Amino acid sequence: MSRAPAQLPLGVGLRDDATFANFHPGPNATLVDRLVHQLDDDGEPFLYVWGVSGTGRSHLLQAACHAASDRDGRALYLPLAELGHFPPLMLEEVERLDLVAIDDLDRVVGRKRWEEALFHAFNRLRDAGKRLVIAAEAPPRQLPVKLPDLASRLTWGMTFHLQGLDDAGRLAALQLRARGRGMQLPNEVARYILHRGPRRLDALFETLEALDRASLSAQRKLTIPFVKQALGW
């Protein structure tokens, strides 16, 4: 039986739907493949993922933790947008885990205590042969890191730019997410949602969740008139 991913006492958990199977890679197939196989014997020790908000960084890091759990591994997801105001005590003894996924790195760079803790955690994970994936909004050389040794470490691994999807990719991602929720989303309705809805994928998926709840409550199929009524469009 697989163990649940290691979680912080602070209550940071993983979204159930944040899996690789529920992510449309589009132009990011190589990145997803590296993440899927990171815990393999020949997997990458360190991956750095950067991209603008809403492109799926957090989804992929949580998916990596789910995948580690499925392989009986222990993983820890650290979203620094939520945890950065705490002292970096959660980085102690991370080398006992199989995978550490640090999200929103840009939220703590420039802060001495955090930078030193990250540097030492990086070294301990490397020495123990464990895996690390870090995500931020900018590539490592563009982050205002003050500790030179940490700045150097951030360039050691493979760096990937998480690219946004074009309209065809956004349509495929929306349909994939709908199937994952057990929704029947006709193509014409999906195209209407893309045309009328938000551009950011995360906001688009929130719209889909709202429609799912509305259709279940009203016992109605998803049609363009129903979408207009449910969302006030």
Automatic annotation (TrEMBL):
> Per the record, a Pfam family?
Hda_lid
Q: Where is the Chromosomal replication initiator protein DnaA ATPAse domain?
A: 93-159
Alphabetical list of SUPFAM superfamilies matching this protein? P-loop containing nucleoside triphosphate hydrolases
InterPro entries listed in its UniProt record: DnaA_dom (IPR013317), Hda (IPR017788), Hda_lid (IPR055199), P-loop_NTPase (IPR027417)
Q: What Gene3D superfamilies has UniProt attached to this entry?
A: 1.10.8.60, P-loop containing nucleotide triphosphate hydrolases
**What positions does the domain Hda lid occupy?**
167-231
An annotated GO BP: DNA replication initiation
What this protein is called in its record is Regulatory inactivation of DnaA Hda protein
Protein source organism: Halomonas ventosae
